[in-house]
Amino acid sequence: MTEIKFYKKAASYWAKVPATVNGVLGGFGHISDIDIDGSRTFLNHLLSLDDPLDTKLALDCGAGVGRVSKYLLVPYFDKVDLVEQDEKFINTAAEVIGQNNVKLGTLYHKSLQKFKPDKKYDLIWCQWVLGYLTNNDLVDFLRKCSKSLAANGMIIIKENIAPAEELEYDDEDSSVTRPYKQMLTIFNEANLEIIKSEVQTGFPDDIYSVYMFALKPK
């Protein structure tokens, strides 16, 4: 499949998905609270480090309907920017967070492969979205994010991890699930080092393992 078809197919899939938490989580809306709790614990640990990240500005990548922004990032950060390629999702996210919420920052209606951050972020959060990028575009995206970090800033990635050594392709939504070793290779190619990693607990047994990675430039 060509890159153009890969990206077009994913965009077409999400265009038909309702702008709800259950929609963006593929029918697993019931795991949202467990997910946010795990992310909050992970973030709290990073904020308790001797030289922690600041909490001025965060970026939510593949923000969907604003679930992560509203329930995780907004309580911690002064401002939260969102980037999301689906128009109905990002419009819903603005409503969910509150159009008049002083913490709602800039909304970028763009795909990640075309997005170039132009601010300095304390935290860049990427969850359940990087499987929609090709390997080359993912490395390129992470390099751009790395250059857009403030002092002590971090990139946090929370993604499904394939159980075997091979990359898995989902033909329905045109996404890939990468094995652990491939994620490490991609981080290395993007010149990022892992500060902390953890496996999300409490999820159903019949879904992929979900890993959290906190990354900093080498």
UniProtKB/TrEMBL annotation:
Keywords: Methyltransferase, S-adenosyl-L-methionine, Transferase. It catalyses: N-terminal L-alanyl-L-prolyl-L-lysyl-[protein] + 3 S-adenosyl-L-methionine = N-terminal N,N,N-trimethyl-L-alanyl-L-prolyl-L-lysyl-[protein] + 3 S-adenosyl-L-homocysteine + 3 H(+); N-terminal L-seryl-L-prolyl-L-lysyl-[protein] + 3 S-adenosyl-L-methionine = N-terminal N,N,N-trimethyl-L-seryl-L-prolyl-L-lysyl-[protein] + 3 S-adenosyl-L-homocysteine + 3 H(+); N-terminal L-prolyl-L-prolyl-L-lysyl-[protein] + 2 S-adenosyl-L-methionine = N-terminal N,N-dimethyl-L-prolyl-L-prolyl-L-lysyl-[protein] + 2 S-adenosyl-L-homocysteine + 2 H(+). InterPro entries: MeTrfase_NTM1, SAM-dependent_MTases_sf. Transmembrane segments: none annotated. It is an enzyme of class 2 (transferase). One of its GO terms (molecular function) is N-terminal protein N-methyltransferase activity. The keyword Signal does not apply. One of its GO terms (biological process) is methylation. S-adenosyl-L-methionine binds at residues 62, 67, 112-113, 127. PANTHER family: AD-003 - RELATED (PTHR12753), ALPHA N-TERMINAL PROTEIN METHYLTRANSFERASE 1 (PTHR12753:SF0). SUPFAM superfamilies: S-adenosyl-L-methionine-dependent methyltransferases. Belongs to the methyltransferase superfamily. NTM1 family. Pfam families: Methyltransf_PK. Gene3D superfamilies: Vaccinia Virus protein VP39 (3.40.50.150). Its EC number is 2.1.1.244. One of its GO terms (cellular component) is cytoplasm. This is Alpha N-terminal protein methyltransferase 1.
